[in-house]
Amino acid sequence: MSKLCNQLKKVGQDRLILKIEWDGLNEAEDEPVKARIKCFSKAVTVIGPNVQHMVFGNRTTQFELKVHKKNVNVQCRFGVIDIIKFKNFIGFRT
């Protein structure tokens, strides 16, 4: 897996979508991968499962976040795990 990027988008008064995309060479399209997220603030919660199981060929996933408090700095760790673990951080203000 060679590329991991993210996009954070507001989709309503109290919802955010974090979209994660990846790419790579010499990976089988049916290679199992896991995407996960953890946010370190009570200002947001992850809606739905915080771990998603999929295959490498999907090349994208998204997590929905519910905002409970406005004007708060939030730090989240996310990553995609196949043979190698990729961990990234994203910070934003609600």
What is this entry, summarized?
Helix content is 0%, strand content 64%. It has 94 residues and is mostly beta strands.
Tell me what you see in this structure.
With 94 residues, this protein is mostly beta strands. The protein has a single domain, classed as Immunoglobulin-like, CATH 2.60.40.2410. 0% of the residues lie in helices and 64% in strands. It has no helices and 8 strands. It has strands spanning 3-10, 15-23, 32-39, 44-47, 51-55, 60-67, 73-81, 85-93. The strands form 2 sheets. A 4-stranded antiparallel beta sheet has the order 1-2-6-4, with no helix packed on it. A 4-stranded antiparallel beta sheet has the order 5-3-7-8, with no helix packed on it. A hairpin with a 4-residue loop joins strand 1 and strand 2 (15-23). It is elongated and about 45 Å long. The termini are far apart. The mean pLDDT is 88.
Order of the strands making up the biggest sheet: 1-2-6-4
Task: Please write the CATH class name.
Answer: Mainly Beta
- Mean pLDDT, nearest integer? 88
For the sheet with most strands, the description reads: 4 strands, antiparallel
The outline comes out as elongated
Write down the Rg: 14 Å
The end-to-end span amounts to 30 Å
DSSP summary, beta strand count = 8
Strand content: over 45%
SSE order, as H and E? EEEEEEEE
